[in-house]
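Need residues for this backbone.
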């Protein structure tokens, strides 16, 4: 299995200098998209605008050493759950996960390690970095067992964005493990996953809103005038003209390419949307983590306001599917076009799983997840 690693020339540069500038990385063959992807995967840390370093060694080294010690405790031990997600290059919500492994039902405890006892079939494990690790699909299933849906979406979105999980394999693993309540939660998480999410906070906050009954938004779609003005809102509900922005703590810090006035650029961006009668709902980490109902309430107020005004898609504004710059495929060009969020194309992964479960989430399950 291919493991996420930096190219040898960049690894050598980091080893030699400790840090690496964007200019140096470009000379060595990287492009800006590579740098962003490596930051997402945890292979690089952005020290400041245009300067990168390797991830801090202590925490990750401690985790790897703990996992190596756990695997040495018995042949039935396999790295799993959030530890496996981390080894697969998938992000997890919050700090670096505690060491987690799975072993047979009769397996004993391992000090300092979270041990799950339901075993792993041989065909559901592979080797990553010299360690036995649950395969990607089994890892995604296991993550759903131990974390709430919003946190599980962080890993699912990244898997769909950077990897190619096998839907039939995912379904077979679910069937083999049983547990009907868990099965429904895992499939629902997969159906809500969207590889267009750019970072863990966007995934987590979307999960919180979905549990509050807010419809699924479109993520990172280009909106503009079809000429030289284009923007990509974090979340967009195009049938009611509501824009959602997940404002993480580092979003408006001065970054390379953002210029000295990132806040001013964001202000101008919002004004452009408001000039075309869009409305905004924003949230930070604390608000969406602890009071998602208030964010959902704000969204519903704005939705009712837009509907009472008879809002329709503004003439001359284009909506273009996610993808690299420049946008190339327009879905909406004038107010006569119709679109709802249910028109979004479901990828093959979700399409397969949709046949296993009604995509509507039972309210009992929704209430249980809100309380986790």
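Answer:
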């Amino acid at each position: 299995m291919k493991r996420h690693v930096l190219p040898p020339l960049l690894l050598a540069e980091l080893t030699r200098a400790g840090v690496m500038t964007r200019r140096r990385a470009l000379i060595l063959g990287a492009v800006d998209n590579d740098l962003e992807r490596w930051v997402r995967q945890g292979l690089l840390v952005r020290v400041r605008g245009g300067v990168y370093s390797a991830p801090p060694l202590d925490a990750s080294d401690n985790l790897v050493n703990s996992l190596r010690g756990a695997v040495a405790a018995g042949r039935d031990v396999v790295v799993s759950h959030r530890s496996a997600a981390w080894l697969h290059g998938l992000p997890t919500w919050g700090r670096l996960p505690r060491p987690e492994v799975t072993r047979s039902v009769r397996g004993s405890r391992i000090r300092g390690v979270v041990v799950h006892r339901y075993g792993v079939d041989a065909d559901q494990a592979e080797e990553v970095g010299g360690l036995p690790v649950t395969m990607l699909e089994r890892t995604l299933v296991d993550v759903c067992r131990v974390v709430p849906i919003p946190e599980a979406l962080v890993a699912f979105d990244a898997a769909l964005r950077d990897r190619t999980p096998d839907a039939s394999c995912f379904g077979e693993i679910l069937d083999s493990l049983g547990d009907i309540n868990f099965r429904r939660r895992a499939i629902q998480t997969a159906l809500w996953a969207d590889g267009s999410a750019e970072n863990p906070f966007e995934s987590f906050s979307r999960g919180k809103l979905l549990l509050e009954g807010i419809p699924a938004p479109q993520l990172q779609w280009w909106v503009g005038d079809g000429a030289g003005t284009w923007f990509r809102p974090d979340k967009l509900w195009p049938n009611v003209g509501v824009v959602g922005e997940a404002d993480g703590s580092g979003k408006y810090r001065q970054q390379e390419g953002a210029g000295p006035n990132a806040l001013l650029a964001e202000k101008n961006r919002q004004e452009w949307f408001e000039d075309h009668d869009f409305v905004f709902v924003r949230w930070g980490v604390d608000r969406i983590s602890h009071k998602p109902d208030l964010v959902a309430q704000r969204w519903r107020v704005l939705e009712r306001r837009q509907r009472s005004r008879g809002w329709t898609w503004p003439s001359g504004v284009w909506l273009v599917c996610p993808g690299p710059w420049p946008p190339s495929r327009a879905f909406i060009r004038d107010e006569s076009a119709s679109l709802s969020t249910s028109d979004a194309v479901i990828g093959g992964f979700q399409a397969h799983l949709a046949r296993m479960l009604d995509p509507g989430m039972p309210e009992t399950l929704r209430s249980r997840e809100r309380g986790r």
